């Protein structure tokens, strides 16, 4: 009886443009879809997604926010595995802020952090970039903070000419604050190395403009 009713319902819904599936049929379709996505991901990963043993460093920009910078540096030391050297390019508007930075420099003097007091932003930044013989560099501002354990090798191993790696995008970004309304998430693909990827391509939008580390607790990445 259930089979007869099921067939009748499928015909009715099919007539109005809706496909109904038995649970077993739906599971089979899901398995086929997952297998297809896995093949596409494997094919994409063969196209030199990863760079072997890249050299990298980071630059942090800070102005009058020694306390927030303290939080960033402390979380970096606590949460980031395989950390790279940090250069902190900072500036202050008064002696009170300058004193706070001096205390911070003393606090982290035994760490792999290099503080530079800004004189001319463009010149100082270019000098830092020229003086550091690294293949890659990433930038942070002093209001960032690391809230989960994270292996930096995961980020620096990707080729930046074809991929953007970010930690501040996630499955929880369902609200557009600019227009004050809900927003849809793009199609995501979870690969074998625990990253979520999305892009602007057709079909399954395989990995072009974004690459995201996947974390169920808070965020994962774009």
CATH topology (level 3) name of the largest domain? Spore Coat Polysaccharide Biosynthesis Protein SpsA, Chain A
The CATH class of the largest domain, by name, is Alpha Beta
CATH superfamily of the largest domain: Spore Coat Polysaccharide Biosynthesis Protein SpsA, Chain A
Specify the biggest β-sheet. 4 strands, parallel
Order of H and E elements:
HHEHEEHEHEEHEEEEE
Description of the molecule:
By secondary structure, the chain is α/β, with parallel strands linked by helices. The chain folds into three domains: 2-45; 52-159, Spore Coat Polysaccharide Biosynthesis Protein SpsA, Chain A; 162-222, no CATH class. It has six helices and eleven strands. It has helices at 2-15, 23-45, 66-79, 95-107, 121-131, 152-156, and strands spanning 56-63, 80-81, 86-91, 113-117, 136-141, 150-151, 175-176, 181-182, 189-190, 195-198, 210-213. The protein has a four-stranded parallel β-sheet with strand order 4-3-1-5, covered by helices on one side. A three-stranded antiparallel β-sheet has the order 9-10-11, with no helix packed on it. The longest helix has 23 residues, at 23-45. The model is unreliable at 39-53 and 200-222 (pLDDT under 50).
What is the gist of this entry?
With 222 residues, the protein is of the alpha/beta class.
């Amino acid at each position: 009886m259930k089979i007869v009713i099921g067939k009748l319902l499928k015909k009715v819904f099919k007539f109005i443009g809706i496909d109904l599936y038995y649970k077993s049929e739906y599971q089979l379709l899901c398995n086929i879809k997952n297998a297809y996505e896995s093949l596409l991901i494997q094919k994409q990963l063969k196209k030199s997604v990863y760079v072997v043993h890249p050299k990298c460093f980071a630059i942090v920009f800070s102005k009058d926010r020694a306390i927030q910078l303290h939080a960033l540096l402390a979380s970096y030391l606590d949460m980031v595995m395989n950390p790279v050297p940090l250069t902190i390019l900072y500036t202050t508007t008064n002696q009170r802020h300058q004193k706070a930075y001096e205390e911070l420099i003393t606090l982290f003097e035994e760490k792999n952090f290099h503080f530079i007091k800004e004189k001319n932003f463009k010149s100082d930044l270019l000098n830092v970039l020229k003086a550091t013989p690294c293949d890659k560099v990433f930038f942070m501002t002093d209001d960032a903070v690391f809230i989960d354990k994270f292996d930096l090798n995961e980020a620096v191993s990707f080729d930046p000419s074809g991929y953007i790696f970010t930690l501040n995008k996630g499955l929880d970004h369902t609200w557009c604050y600019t227009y004050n309304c809900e927003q849809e998430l793009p199609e995501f693909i979870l690969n074998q190395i625990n990253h979520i990827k999305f892009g602007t391509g057709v079909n399954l939008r395989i990995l072009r403009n974004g690459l995201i580390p996947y974390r169920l607790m808070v965020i994962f990445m774009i």
